[in-house]
Hints:
The structure holds two protein chains of two kinds.
Chain A: H1 2-9, E1 14-15, H2 20-33, H3 36-41, E2 46-49, E3 52-56, H4 64-73, H5 90-104, H6 108-118, E4 131-132, E5 139-140, H7 146-155
Parallel strand pairs in A: 1-3
Antiparallel strand pairs in A: 2-3, 4-5
Chain B: H1 2-12, E1 18-25, E2 37-42, H2 51-61, E3 71-72, E4 75-76, E5 80-84, E6 87-88, E7 104-109
Amino acid sequence: RSSDLGRIEKVDRIVTGHNADDIAETVVMNILRGDVARLQRCTAVTTSGGETIPRSKPFKYTYEKEIVMYAYFKKLDYFSTECIYSPNAYRGHARAFLKDLESIRSTSIIDIIHSGDSLAFRKNVKFPTLGTCSQCGYISSQTLCKACVLLQGLNKGLPRLAVGKTNTSK
Amino acid sequence: SDLLWSRVNKTSLKLAERSISVEFSGGAELLFGNVKKHRIRLPARETAWNLGSLLIWLRDNLLRERPELFVQGETVRPGILVLINDTDWELLGQTQYELADEDTIVFISTLHGG
């Protein structure tokens, strides 16, 4: 993982290029999934948590359109290869919804980010406790983090383990 | 003379053809045979060519696959940026903009990544 690499290379902070559209999509996705833990964190400009390298998103308020226009007019090398799995990913639905919303109400993206920032939870809402993976020590809400579960599946010859809707651990 | 006048009007109703350049980038070129730059001559017709009619023409004549990734209803699919002579089309009336000879229209897709 990039965070682990950061630890090895002695990095102070990891800065990612997530833009306003990305963050608004993430808020919508997490609402649709009811992921309260992520909803709390996903709009933060800077995240830090115990052992992990702090991460920042300086483009939080920069629209993807501005970035694309900037790259176009400055004639920057622009990579537009799409991840082949992305059309089926959940984010694709959130993105399509957001784009349609934006065509009706142009401030949708910035409004959703603002809503994400303002979200507060009642005291009696249950959150998953943040512990560490028993195998690799990375932060995880389960005994084994997802990466370790997937790796374990691959090593045991069970590539479908923890992939898809039914988890069968044999 | 009324009859003559209406005849003259009818022949001048057909507006001039348009020669324009159309470019695709950001992945949009994949829908157009992976060709980024196109020179297009739009035939003369009775109503002026605007960007809306250009979109329909592109969909019916140049688009190779999956029209739903380029057009949505009467306009471009949300997420595709349109530049008319390097200016954001939102400043020029979007689909209502009437094409002029030698205009350059650029379609940049922002719908990618993962």
